[in-house]
């Protein structure tokens, strides 16, 4: 995937906002594979319109596979929820440039709210198709006011892909409590890394790829060793699913070496928790 001669300048994005480019590039690479995992046709189109050295990120195949698979798993949970609740709202926290509303294609009465920082939302408005059911919310999830423009009386499917690793524990706790304070009923689904220890943190910082340096510099929360921890932060949240990416059928689409390594990791509880989707009901 070549860098365009001319494209949208993103040099004014903050380091945290720039992490959205990494995830989008991973989804774009997946979309160009002969057998994609997510297969998002908009991803590569969006990347092609941005003036940024994506190739310089050094995104490895393993990250492409994981980013594509966790997005697909979240899509499936959104489809299931909106199928049962055709009047729902979907809230994507830290949405980045994700084109979820156009992949999932929920029932026509569903409204989809993408929440992110100002620079990212400005990019979304320039790059993503217009839909009367897709809305942008310019806000930090650390702010108490971000839910104010989102209907509270409809069932809510709240998702977060890659967000919580960049937030502190007090901010995440605030987000979890704010959800149930604003929405009457719904679900929360997000990806989690089990628990990122000091060794992994050091390894990420020392890795030669720019991608890992960018992520490591922004890392906030190490992940949940116990998936029931969010229930202690907000008793209104009830864990209903803990799905390891290592157990997903789509790993058969991984390259041979990565497929084998992933299947082996899925045989052990600790390593299987290193990449998973957690889902809670409230």
TrEMBL record:
Organism: Mycobacterium numidiamassiliense
Molecular function per GO: methyltransferase activity
InterPro entries: Ppm1/Ppm2/Tcmp (IPR007213), SAM-dependent_MTases_sf (IPR029063), TcmP-like (IPR016874)
Origin superkingdom: Bacteria
Keywords: Methyltransferase, Transferase
UniProt-listed GO biological process terms: methylation
Name this polypeptide is given: O-methyltransferase domain-containing protein
Lineage summary: Bacteria, Bacillati, Actinomycetota, Actinomycetes, Mycobacteriales
SUPFAM superfamilies found in the cross-reference section: S-adenosyl-L-methionine-dependent methyltransferases (SSF53335)
